[in-house]
Amino acid sequence: MRAMQISSDHPLLLRIVDDLAERGWSQQNIFLPLDLTRALAAECRKRAAEGELAPAAVGRGPTSEIREGIRGDHIQWIDPGQAEACDSYLGLMDSLREAINRGLFLGLEDFESHFAMYPPGAFYLKHLDRFRDDDRRMVSAVVYLNDGWLPEHGGQLRMYLDNERAYDVQPTGGCLVVFLSGEVPHEVLPATRERLSLTGWFRRRGNEPF
Ligand code: OGA
Ligand code: MN
User: Fold this and answer.
1) Alpha-carbon distance 32 to 35, whole Å?
2) Cα–Cα distance, 171 to 178 (Å, whole number)
3) Residue 137 burial by CB count (10 A; 0-12/13-18/19+): exposed, middle or buried?
């Protein structure tokens, strides 16, 4: 697969930036190309089969803990240089980071992301993507890696928008959802089948506690 390049003034990215500015979130159903979506799903499954995904913790630093009653996904953080598909994804996200900085002046400096696999029945209760002691996460971005997802499979991302209005996103392969990390409460509903995604956060420089 060819390495992905996309300019930071690509119309798709400008639309996402406009959405973020106007309402704090954006959904693009056709964001990742199909071949990249499949390659990322295969990479996620390979890592799961090799035992590299671990139960995700709640919180950060010394007080973080595994609590399946809050979140039941298994994750692995990704780094550049591990797999071509991951590097393509990181390249796309870097173009999005530049586009957001250009349009919104958020001063986003880096991006952290992990694969997430929710086994059937797993969920993540309503939360904000900000830690109490660390406000560096500004914008959350989730891409889904699931072929042929149907509403009856469950697993929706439920966002609570203005006035707590619930809005559901189907975790269908290739779809990207972006939202302001500190402003959009959201949850992951339980699914009847395995649910794969890449979740990441654009961060600004901050008063890092440790
Ligand atoms: C998260 C999260 C949403 C999703 O990992 O913080 O909210 O749809 N993920 O996977
Ligand atoms: Mn979240």
Assistant:
1) 8
2) 13
3) buried
Place of tokens 């199909």: 34
Which residue is listed with tokens 């939202």? 179
Per-residue pLDDT of 48-101, as tens digits, reads 999 999 998 888 777 778 888 789 999 999 999 999 999 999 999 999 999 999
Above 70 in pLDDT, residue 208?
A: no
DSSP assignment letter at 59 = S
Ligand nearest to the CA of 172: 1
The dotted CATH code for 11-204 is: 2.60.120.620
The two three-digit tokens of residue 84, written as one number: 């071509």
- Choosing from 118, 126, 129 the residue with most ligand 1 atoms within 8 A of its CB, the one to mutate for a pocket test is 129
Find out whether 159 and 184 touch, Cβ atoms under 8 Å: yes
Q: Is 197 in the pocket of ligand 1 (CB under 6 A)?
A: yes
Q: Is 172 in the pocket of ligand 1 (CB under 6 A)?
A: no
Q: 166-169 and 157-160 as β-strands: parallel, antiparallel, unpaired? A: antiparallel
114, 76 Cβ separation under 8 angstroms: yes
The residue contributing the CA closest to ligand 1 atom 1 is 199
Which token pair is 180?
């302001």
